[in-house]
């Protein structure tokens, strides 16, 4: 039997695997791995059996940066590409963020077609990319950051946003994304909080599950549209320095705190891949932590997909952690621990050293299973079967009006109002001029994972531009207000005095402060970046001269609105919060954030965002998350303080707490009921409440449900979120909200085993995790 391999030039560039399959036959029968009627696993197994050792090792890496940029133009280094492709050809990525999608697609299609035509078995690349605010390169819909979209607390709307992002990725031929990130933003000092959904495992798990389910939804051919990568398993957190507080560490902490956000997505959405973190846990870097990768992740949590490294992580085993003696040693240790694919930004991966280990039967066996996992993803996503994407469909899909409308709506619902003393909403007839002040008032601060030149108007209107469109440019007095957003010894306050003069002249000041600014590209504004990956915060005050600026504006007594723009939270001492008339957090921007804030300022949109993180009261008052253990709020002695969190004394329940957010209308949540349906293991706790809009404006409220067992097997947090619903109500309208909580979902891990307490439970229902916003309900499960 002789295979008829008739792939030729007509498949190049517009290569279509439907045509390839029709041509590649054996005695008029499709070679099994090209037969779309077979399962992905069967096709992958057949193909792997035909591959050489070098071809297998080549699947374990790839080329993430196909296209670069120089002098404002896309560049493609053919020499470098071919050098890497020889040994790393499992996946490719689009490369530089500021290249436009229509420029990138021809290059991607060229190398994708070449790979199909030139590789011995015609094994295609799968195209992989980060995807947080939208597609990785420029030209797509620019959604806000993860923390912003989560602040909407609107899962249905979020699902629509991810559907739009998914379809725009597919139009570029991206079939595998490095998201969602389910790490918990429990330490305000972490620079990557903007990539996260918040501090709570339940909320994060719900949003991550929706992300995965929408991205991995199958199309009409039965192919997974876009494979996902849940990450980063598992990312740590700090402790708080309190006398009697809990110590972080151990399996219960990992599974119930850090890993809580993985449980539902793995169980209900089954992400096709997972990225291990850079973290060292109990002295063992995750890249070689077989216990956490195999026993816990695969065994306890039941993860079945491919496990990949984070960028450069395997290399760091011998360059930083010194737990490997060489690249080859690091590669073999990581492979044996459970890593199956290497992510490397430059393509100079260390898994290529495995080529020399073909005589080691253990390595051969693990490589085979790793290659099988990757090939299965390729077959599941139709990488062997889909035609290459076209410029026509790209132009039709990117920035569709329905995508932009979803974008507008989720941004409107993501802005969180933290204070309003009655100044807002403004009346257009009463506002003659406004002073717009601050270094973030005239940029799009979308985050380093966004394809966004912060000053380019193509990405939307800044707050300044949006207000100019509303009021007329002559009525918007703008000042950056600071010489630098970086911490410095610059004491020149000339620009601050100019901003103060503008505030006095206008009679109202809208001050936008924050941190961030810039992408991965050092040639843009990275030299002024103060937030996101690689930037932890020792000080949670506004960086640079921004604190001096806002205090100087407040000293004038001019009505002032403060808007925060960043992926992080900031300290809001009484000297600022107490004197500001209104305060918002807008998080990492999308292209309509300026427009949404303007609509909110003038009452055209009623704010409905809620905090997904708790804002600390002081530098050093960490951890600050709402779901602390009872013993974390103890420690006083005799006539000393009742508790020692902290001195000068602050509490474990700061006012700007998880779940908190204001509206222009007022809501009441009452008529709460609770009962248990069924017996013990098969029971369901059913709760209901009536939500009423008691104000004069249509608005949206997030009804939140928290719980804790009265007595637990191990120490349990003071409360944990277990449900939420967002409802829209007209003035005077009421709606009944119902929750059904399966008994199983009330549990937690004890030494790796899922445990659910019987007996007495306390539930709370209300509008935030603050006790004054909650109604307590008690029930017994017997």
From TrEMBL:
<dbReference type="GO" id="GO:0000272">
    <property type="term" value="P:polysaccharide catabolic process"/>
</dbReference>
<dbReference type="InterPro" id="IPR002772">
    <property type="entry name" value="Glyco_hydro_3_C"/>
</dbReference>
<keyword id="KW-0378">Hydrolase</keyword>
<protein>
    <recommendedName>
        <fullName>beta-glucosidase</fullName>
        <ecNumber>3.2.1.21</ecNumber>
    </recommendedName>
</protein>
<keyword id="KW-0119">Carbohydrate metabolism</keyword>
<keyword id="KW-0325">Glycoprotein</keyword>
<feature type="domain" description="Fibronectin type III-like">
    <location>
        <begin position="701"/>
        <end position="769"/>
    </location>
</feature>
<dbReference type="InterPro" id="IPR017853">
    <property type="entry name" value="GH"/>
</dbReference>
<dbReference type="InterPro" id="IPR036962">
    <property type="entry name" value="Glyco_hydro_3_N_sf"/>
</dbReference>
<comment type="pathway">
    <text>Glycan metabolism; cellulose degradation.</text>
</comment>
<dbReference type="InterPro" id="IPR013783">
    <property type="entry name" value="Ig-like_fold"/>
</dbReference>
<keyword id="KW-0624">Polysaccharide degradation</keyword>
<comment type="similarity">
    <text>Belongs to the glycosyl hydrolase 3 family.</text>
</comment>
<dbReference type="InterPro" id="IPR001764">
    <property type="entry name" value="Glyco_hydro_3_N"/>
</dbReference>
<dbReference type="InterPro" id="IPR026891">
    <property type="entry name" value="Fn3-like"/>
</dbReference>
<dbReference type="Pfam" id="PF14310">
    <property type="entry name" value="Fn3-like"/>
</dbReference>
<feature type="signal peptide">
    <location>
        <begin position="1"/>
        <end position="22"/>
    </location>
</feature>
<keyword id="KW-0326">Glycosidase</keyword>
<dbReference type="GO" id="GO:0008422">
    <property type="term" value="F:beta-glucosidase activity"/>
</dbReference>
<dbReference type="Pfam" id="PF01915">
    <property type="entry name" value="Glyco_hydro_3_C"/>
</dbReference>
<dbReference type="InterPro" id="IPR036881">
    <property type="entry name" value="Glyco_hydro_3_C_sf"/>
</dbReference>
<keyword id="KW-0732">Signal</keyword>
<dbReference type="Pfam" id="PF00933">
    <property type="entry name" value="Glyco_hydro_3"/>
</dbReference>
<dbReference type="InterPro" id="IPR050288">
    <property type="entry name" value="Cellulose_deg_GH3"/>
</dbReference>
